[in-house]
Amino acid sequence: MGKPKLLITRRLPEAVEARAAATYDAVFNRDDTPTTPAGIVAAAAGMDAILCCTSDRLDAGVIAGLPGSVKVISTFSVGTDHIDFAACAARGIPVCNTPDVLTEATAELTMLLILAAARRAGEGERMVRAGAWSGWAPTQLMGAQVSGKRLGIFGMGRIGQSVARMARGFRMEVHYRNRSRLPAELEAGAVYHDDDARFLAVCDVLSLNAPGGAGTLAWLNAARIAMLPRGAIVANAARGTLVDDAALIAALKSGHVAYAGLDVFKGEPALDPGYLGLENAVLLPHLGSATTETRDAMGHLALDGIDAVLAGRVPGNLVG
Amino acid sequence: MKPRLIVSRQMPQAVGERIRAEFDCPVPDGEDLDVATTLRLLAETQADALLFTSHLKLTAAVIAALPAHVRVAATCSVGFDHIDLAAAKARGLPVTNTPEVLNECTADLAFMLLLNACRRGSEYEAVMRRGWRQGMGMGEMLGVRAWGKTLGILGMGGIGRAMAARARGFGMKIVYCNRNRLAPELELGALYYSDFEEMLPHCDFLSLHAPSGPATAGIMNARTFGLMKQGAVFVNAARGALVEEDALIAALRSGQLFAAGLDVFHNEPAYDLRFVELPNVFLTPHMGSATVETRNAMGFRALDNIQAVLAGRSAIDPLWS
Questions:
Q1: What is the pTM of this model?
Q2: How far does CA B306 lie from the centroid of its chain?
Q3: Is B143 within 8 Å of A287 when comparing Cβ atoms?
Q4: Between chain A and chain B, how many beta carbons pairs sit less than 8 Å apart?
Q5: Predicted confidence band at B135 (pLDDT cuts at 50, 70, 90)?
Q6: What is the Cα–Cα distance from A208 to A160, expressed in whole angstroms?
Q7: Which terminal Cβ of chain A has fewer Cβ within 10 Å, N or C?
Q8: DSSP 3-state of B152
Q9: DSSP 8-class letter at B2
Q10: How close does chain A come to B221, measured CA to CA in Å?
Q11: B227-272 per-position pLDDT tens digit
Q12: How far apart are alpha carbons B320 and B93 in whole angstroms?
């Protein structure tokens, strides 16, 4: 019996593609050409499994159009907004994702954003790159101290908790806002807030680590920004939709928010052009999980899910 | 009557306010004075004290030219390469620096450099400033995860230990090399190597926190970079003199180092412009202590030293004894 057939919609890390080639009759997208819904349906002919990415649209039409041979869809991501679950359920196609393996990489990127924003790293880097450094001065590029400050984490899931652990090494006092209070052993001394105003008032540094979706849409708006202490630092390595960009840009211009570090944006891979000229914003292109270790782990977990379903087992990373 | 002070360099606002309150000083916030102007103002104002930074070289000749009424010179810095301590001692002039107050701040910056080097911060920020608009493949432009790696620290003083504390929150294993092994309550499980070269092959990351001097000059060279793991990440927020920059640039080009984060350079501010051509470095202009909080604390510490000496007490941070 031949190997099962696997469609991999986009280019994946080398180690992941090597494993897929070893265990499957795999079809790759070596040029990493963006897919279309019709293209996915056509490419799925005869496939036992699909390994997709967030850039693919697996809407109800695509799912309905998949051939009967497709027994599992696994996405190379934690997020699953690009997949129509109801349509998958109607077809009886299980869906797997890659939770947990990017917790630490995303948390450390959050700390990078906080530190780089507060310490004016972008400005310093551009100055040195331009050959424009004229010498040390006691008042040159003075930023804000991170160590010892109060850090407020909005969304205390796994990534938020990991950010808290990292922040403690910087002697930060950790506060958090979450739907519910964590048990003491997970809270680890962090102060729980059940109210936005009281939470935001203590955030020298605010880190957004909540999921996207309707419940958090534009959560950080002008009214909530106004509740932050003047000169606060804002970091977002979660979802661009959490932020009202116009309000944050206005606050960065007025100085109410002194510095921001942003890895995610509404409308990626575009961003509000209002950010581009701001020296007090550190901007990164959604690279929370962009390490070799993490991307390999994501790919292996996505393949584990496919392996399990095709072997008749229930995968550990089944969604829903 | 307030003591008379000359400030040879622009100071943070809060420091200027304190100078205004406690001293008779023509320019309490400072302006950038050269040696000749500094000497002239010290004489003209019958100054009791001098507050300066590394831009003013306190050479033997300058120290000899100081008017006799100058009773203390305080540098607003930790480093004192710019001061001829032997000449100061020969003259009996107390000279002070501002240690300790910048430990946390400098460790924050060193850790920022480590993360930016690992995660390719410079390359990615440049992509963004061009407006982004390009998707990136899942296997493209990947960085190195910092979490869980082994960090080597050269120089386990206050800044080195603060660096270790930060790294522990990232699940890192700490190894260190220092003149002496630390007591267990300071070591906190870090693994001691008396031999620097023995430590290097164990390091995924290496961060320098040692002072410059004959024992450490060029300690990072072709040989020592070669002893590190292939693809290691290197951070220097200590002193440029610790590194042979030809060897560093070669290691960055060959891939022996995955990346580096550099806040200090051999020649400052005339640093080697070959660095700006390298994508895999994150470069900052000697800003380890550059926060409002720390620069204020440094200025206050320098003023505390001046006040102590002028009051007839010992300096808090004397540079010679």
A1: 0.95
A2: 22
A3: yes
A4: 235
A5: confident
A6: 8
A7: N
A8: strand
A9: P
A10: 23
A11: 999 999 999 999 999 999 999 999 999 999 999 999 999 999 999 9
A12: 9
